[in-house]
Write a structure and sequence with these properties.
Layout (H helix, E strand, L loop, with lengths): L5 E2 L5 E2 L1 H24 L14 E7 L1 H5 L4 H6 L5 E7 L2 H10 L4 E4 L8 E15 L1 H7 L4 H7 L2 E3 L6 H10 L7 E3 L3 H9 L5 E4 L10 E2 L5 E11 L4 H16 L9
Parallel strand pairs: 3-4, 3-5, 7-8
Antiparallel strand pairs: 1-2, 5-11, 6-9, 6-10, 6-11
């Protein structure tokens, strides 16, 4: 081809041109597996070898994986022609995984389609500022904004902007309260319940039973979710997309208009 495809290193990495070819190879593998499955009729051939299964890799952000996305598992459970790989990653890397071919589809907060992909709006995940009852009593007995400026806060990781966005809008950019980092969606909520700090909790993860209380009814944030997938005529990818849409519709995601 007259161009370098591999960049030397430990490990070796594909160049931009190499990434394009790698993605093409994975797309061809997917289509070839589907063609072989169709030719075998979906059954076990006489020589008792299992039919080809189409492997579909999907990137999902942690909060979606902890709330509505598992609804796709039930819908795909009886699909013997499919092997599903779920990659947990945040939005900062999902686009690169799509470009490189490491993932064929992604749940993302970015509605701008990656080159070679289509995108569609799934719904909106609402987050609400919450804390344990004892934490609210300790830190928010007076003016809520004053409490927010000094109360310990729980972030998912150092790139998490949900809590930071609320702090900036209510208290200004110079506020630096004590911050804890808990990079797991379920344990993030556990940390808030246990009083480590306050946090923006997806409404779908509110356990109820008064273990969490709302700090202020106006302290919410709506995060639009999109489904991006390769622009490829793949029956397997189409079946996964159908399951994702159905799971999003049946999960209680808000159907707010995408902007």
């Amino acid at each position: 081809m007259g161009t370098v495809l591999i960049r030397r290193g430990k490990p070796a990495q594909p160049t931009t041109a190499g990434t394009v070819l790698l993605r093409l190879a994975r797309q061809v593998d997917l289509l070839a597996a589907e063609a072989m499955a169709e030719l075998s009729g979906g059954g076990i051939p006489d020589h008792e070898m299992a039919p080809e299964r189409a492997a579909v890799s999907v990137v999902v952000n942690a909060d979606s994986l902890a709330t509505w996305f598992p609804g796709t598992f039930t819908l795909l459970a009886q699909d013997a022609r499919l092997e599903l790989e779920v990659l947990r990653a945040d939005e900062s890397v999902s686009a690169e995984l799509l470009r490189s071919g490491a993932a064929m589809a992604a749940v993302t907060t970015d509605g701008r389609a990656v080159q070679g992909c289509t995108t569609e709006f799934l719904g909106t995940l609402r987050y609400t500022a919450m804390a344990s009852p004892a934490f609210r009593k300790q830190w928010f007995a007076g003016d809520p904004a004053s409490g927010l400026a000094v109360a310990p806060v729980v972030d998912f990781d150092r790139s998490d902007q949900l809590q930071r966005s609320l702090l900036r809008s209510i208290c200004g950019s110079e506020v630096r309260p004590p911050t804890h980092y808990v990079p797991d969606s379920s344990q993030f909520v556990r940390a808030v319940i246990d009083g480590l700090g306050w946090g923006m909790v997806p409404d779908a993860q509110d356990p109820g039973q008064d273990s969490l209380v709302v700090l202020d009814p106006g302290w919410t944030q709506d995060v639009a979710l999109y489904w991006q997938r390769w622009k490829l005529d793949s029956p397997a990818l189409g079946r996964v997309s159908t399951a994702v849409r159905a799971a999003a519709r049946g999960s209680g995601l808000l159907e707010l208009t995408s902007v």
